[in-house]
Known about the structure:
Chain B: GO terms for molecular function: oxidoreductase activity, acting on the aldehyde or oxo group of donors, NAD or NADP as acceptor. Chain B: Belongs to the aldehyde dehydrogenase family. Chain B: It holds the Pfam family Aldedh. Chain B: Keywords: Oxidoreductase. The complex is a heterodimer of chains A (288) and B (476). With 288 residues, chain A is of the alpha/beta class. Chain A has one domain: Aldehyde Dehydrogenase, Chain A, domain 1. Chain A is 41% helix and 18% strand. In chain A, helix 4 (101-119) packs parallel to helix 6 and helix 8 runs parallel beside helix 9 (240-247). The mean pLDDT of chain A is 97. Chain B folds into 2 domains: 12-257 and 456-473, 3-Layer(aba) Sandwich (Aldehyde Dehydrogenase, Chain A, domain 1), CATH 3.40.605; 262-441, 3-Layer(aba) Sandwich (Aldehyde Dehydrogenase, Chain A, domain 2). Helices cover 38% and strands 16% of the residues of chain B. In chain B, the strands form 4 sheets. Chain B has a 7-stranded mixed beta sheet, sandwiched between helices. A 6-stranded mixed beta sheet of chain B has the order 8-7-6-9-10-18, with helices on both faces. A 3-stranded mixed beta sheet of chain B has the order 1-5-4, with no helix packed on it. In chain B, helix 2 (79-95) runs antiparallel to helix 4 (112-133), helix 4 runs parallel beside helix 5 (161-174) and helix 9 packs across helix 10 (303-315). The longest helix of chain B is centred in the N-terminal third of the chain and has 22 residues, at 112-133. The chains are: A alpha/beta (288), B alpha/beta (476). Chain A binds chain B through residues 128-129, 131, 133-137, 139, 141, 143, 148-149, 225, 228, 240-242, 244-245, 247-251, 253, 256, 269, 271, 274, 278-285, and chain B through 125, 141, 143, 236, 239-241, 243-244, 246-248, 250, 252, 255, 257, 412, 427, 431, 436-443, 446, 448, 450-454, 456-461, 463, 466-468, 471, 476.
Amino acid sequence: MSDRVTVAKTYKLYLGGAFPRSESGRTYPVTDARGKFLANAAQASRKDLREAVGAARKGFGKWSGATAYNRGQVLYRVAEVLEGRREQFAAEVAASEGVPQKRAQSLVDTAIDRWVWYAGWTDKIATVLGAANPVAGPYFSFSVPEPTGVVGVLAPQRSSLLGLVSVLAPALAAGCAAVVVTSQNRPLPAITLSEVLATSDVPAGVVNLLTGHTAELAPWLATHADVNALDLTGAPPELRTDLERAAAGTVKRVLRTPAEEPDWTARPDIARLRAVLETKTVWHPMGA
Amino acid sequence: MTWEYAPAPESRDIANLKANYRMFLDGEFVEGAGEPLKTVNPATEEVLAEVSTASPADVDRAVKAAKRAQDRVWGRMPGAERAKYIFRVARMIAERARELAVLESLDNGKPIKESRDTDVPTAAAHFFYHAGWADKLDHAGFGPDPRPVGVAGQVIPWNFPLLMAAWKIAPALACGNTVVLKPAETTPLTALVLAEIIQQAELPPGVVNILPGAGDIGAELVNHPGVNKVAFTGSTEVGKIIQRSLAGTGKKLTLELGGKAANIVFDDAPIDQAVEGIVNGIFFNQGHVCCAGSRLLVQESVAEEVLDKLRKRVATLRIGDPLDKNTDVGAINSREQLAKIQELVASGEDEGAVRWTSPCPVPDKGFFFAPTVFANVSQAMRIAREEIFGPVLSVLTFRTPDEAVAKANNTPYGLSAGVWTEKGSRILLMADRLRAGVVWANTFNRFDPTAPFGGYQESGFGREGGRAGLEAYLDV
């Protein structure tokens, strides 16, 4: 053991590729599972959220315009960098979730493997969900899945990293951009994840992570006209119906999510990819 | 030279029109407890028939019947057996195609050539296509043994009454769900003949229930706690109301809503073909089409040529008796819709767009609106932003492909789009960049049961048709 005083990290927002404090100047204390102080996290405001949506819209153009192969490589790169920070994540997950170190390590490993799983989907999902449509006429018709746009995510409240990865990675693999409100009380692994994203060639704005009070930020995310889909996994149960109602104002796709946070260690299927993809059908006549 | 046409009316006797129609509940045609409605021929304003409507209690009975049928019979039946019932329906629609076409044109006002060549055959095709899925769902990409959702509550519009019923009922049945469907208030007749077909095809009682009524009955249906899945086709306004009212219920929802499609013509397009496509895009079915090409975007260098040719071509469209085989544009479906079109057209004139209306003769009786083209339209005008749902085209111009994309995508909708150009690479680029669920290149308004259809953004979510369309009716 060294006597050296450690350099403590300032936890900030991840917005448009940068790490600003909340424009509101607010922070809130984050504690570990036993109530011991860990850090002050930025408490994002409505204005931060709107800026994040703006940044996500810009990021979406770049990300959805990249080739599927390129997106796959970038996402795989994220997994590489995650792997390099394995110990740090395990420590943060253990502190945040109050699980033993060994369990935390296993959750981190599953999160990294999940990221790799989704990274591999970028250039396969169109084959699986797309089609050449055998229409009854002299036309060539094909259907391709396309990312729905900006996805608003209320991240799982309990599972600070694996849960977050399980909801964020499919949105990115599908080609969407995301505005994520992190777990309110367990935000630190999310912020560390944003540092990984910032150093993995994910274009600025594609992922925006806001720490803060979920109940305060959620209504603005649900009503924002430039958010195309809404994932209410981490929504406060008492607000869920109101948020769904608000989402109807701009016909948002509201993901079908279970009322209780699921067991994130279970093997995923492609439902979360499907939920943030649109099907586009193109027709052209055939003839000499 | 001017072409003269002798009248060529299809006989209305073929429709086997009855004085009274009753709702179809639990396998029987029964009198509904709602206020009966009178359905009107929009081309003549005469009453065609009296139709009994459902009361909230009838909705409850129908949903319960559907639930029973789903639990005890339809949901348990092997897919291969379900398939044979659905095939029967497809065949019987084809057998009664002429009758259905004439009845559709009487009740809806659409030209007989459209009901005969599009609505009815495509409805039969939808049943035929989906019948084949019933025993192949394991292979549809939703995992092994995907389960049905349960009872589907479906509300459909008046623009393609039989075809929309087919789009809704066929996939629901194939996936093992049972159905309570509410046809539109102004066009209930063909759905009730479809009910007759379903009865004759001996589908078990309760598998399909058809309950005419107005919007309040639609609301009753979608909000009934026994309904597990809601499918709605109609306006974005009502779609939002439904999505809002379903919040927190966990019901599965798909919406196919309004649109304001851009039909983009580049300077290298085959202009004569494009003009045909523009005409089809906006005047097909009197423009009562959610995916109508209602915003024409023409490249500036050919704008005058295109507009000239377009006006000449539109002037030849024949408007009138929907039963006449030579009619191109039939009747507006209702007085309310006609008023809405007139109001929006007046706003176009007030906002400074240049109106041109076809000089074609228009019948004095019935609800008709002559094909109209607005030039000098700017993006801010209501006629460029709002869905008119009538034979009214707004023309805007652009200079570069980027500008065309920006203008086309400058809408909260995203149902369809059209592109006209001879350049293959440009077609593919445009198809990629247009934010719409269907892109027609060098064609327009093509539909097929194998081709998924549905919108982006406020044009709704979920798809109808193809493998993708099954998702709406499976618990996946």
